[in-house]
Amino acid sequence: MRLLLLLSVFDVCWAQYDPRTKCGRTSIVHLFEWRWDDIALECERYLAPNGFGGVQVSPPNENAVINNPLRPWWERYQPVSYKICSRSGSEDEFRAMVKRCNDVGVNIYVDAVVNHMCGKDVSAGTSSTCGSYYNPGSRDFPAVPYSGWDFNDGKCQTSSGEIENYNDANQVRDCRLSGLLDLALEKDYVRSTIAAYLNHLISIGVAGFRIDASKHMWPGDMKAFLDKLNNLNTSWFPEGSRPFIYQEVIDLGGEAIHSSDYFGNGRVTEFKYGAKLGTVIRKWDGEKMAYLKNWGEGWSFMPSDKALVFVDNHDNQRGHGAGGASILTFWDARLYKMAVGFMLAHPYGFPRVMSSFKWPRYFENGKDVNDWVGPPNDNGTIKQVTINADTTCGNDWVCEHRWRQIRNMVIFRNVVNGQSLTNWWDNGSNQIAFGRGNKGFIVFNNDDWALNSNLQTGLPAGTYCDVISGDKSDNDCTGIQVHVGNDGRAYFSICNSAEDPFIAIHVNAKL
Ligand code: AAO
Q1: 261 is known as an active-site residue
Q2: Which residue CA neighbors atom 51 of ligand 1 most closely?
Q3: Residues 6 or more apart from 455 whose CB is under 8 A from it?
Q4: pTM higher than 0.90 for the full model?
């Protein structure tokens, strides 16, 4: 009886930190700005067969249509109602996607924008993705409904009504983030309205939420609406499953608000991860890959079981948010693949892979003047994700998650799941290697000279297919082969000019 009680307490505690992925799947992918129809197809044709655990989707609710600039990606962060009705599709299309993805064991996580409504200076009218009327000037959102009482105008203490100083936690939580009308989450009506929106999504079958701009809400106010959430839909999840919660909090240190303020509510985005990993792999500030030996809490990151990690996100890949110039993206493909490979091989945190669209990046005085450009579209309608003969994507969808090196490391992470980091090796510079128990081993050469080393892999003897340079198909390997001896050692040779200067082997790619 006491054990049972203990177990159930443990279960309750772990609840909102658990992504509830199926079949030992250990990562998710953000399909930024994709249409629901395309996501449904991708779950069936690619994500499930390759072991992806879930998808973070763009905000599904109705938003302000912005025409100046013309349909920027960021208009989706300006809600006008909680109708499921966006450029990605209708509620029916959303429901069909959730069902089709759940049916193949791929979870859907919704980007929930609940800190605010649209910008205060957006004109009143029906320029919205579902045609609902709204009037930001008078704080009127009848399609919710919200009115003046439901916003923080009276509570904010700055003269501009905007966040002016990130060292003042009150401002950050009670004032407007770049003009966005700040909801009064201390009110039960607002909390209940948000919970009703999220519960609607839960009833459809979503598995959890990325909570946008969490830093701008009081953790206690968030807890109040999170406590109102229902358990997940039992058509796909075990009875009593709680929604997975990961909160977007930017904490690079040096501000009033800390990630740890939010641990009680769920996981938190670890922004130091991508900023530091980018610095190391670019070899800036005297950083070396050898220093990654104590990566994770040893780098003063949050505890691993609270962290949601990523190399880049939809903001910092284009200079929004935080992280700065060190952030690696698909634009720096060679280094990016190493960074994502490292993230997926390393046990720290729960990882999210980014999947982007291409835009006409153009720098003026160090700033990308096209950082606003929205997804590939025809007169505003988002373009389909077409698939080329070589399995890459067309129509300017980058589909990093389909790059062989990244897809195979998603699989690697599933294969080594539960194994601790073992057999660390480095040359004191930028050549490193480590294993995950007796299941997998990875070697990087980011130095300006060749790597030629005999290393302990911890793997059973045999011939393995390197999943970075190729694939195992039938009993053949289209890439480099690695021979592990009876003593577990193998000889690795990686030229510094190799297309991808890293090698990864695991027990499911043994020939
Ligand atoms: C748009 C227009 C605005 C206009 C507004 C209203 O661009 O000019 O005023 O509409 O009409 C996205 C876009 C915004 C867009 C918004 C609404 O990024 O450009 O505004 O949609 O359409 C802060 C928040 C963080 C937020 C991030 C962008 O804390 O929550 O800004 N991210 C999320 C979403 C994002 C979205 C929103 C929130 C809003 O992911 O896509 O905005 O829904 C410091 C603070 C950070 C702060 C940054 C940027 O960071 O610490 O908390 O992030 O500043 O303001 C170093 C420091 C680092 C610092 C950074 C930048 O790296 O170490 O701490 O420098 O100074």
Answers
A1: no
A2: 250
A3: 423, 425, 433, 441, 443, 489, 490, 492
A4: yes
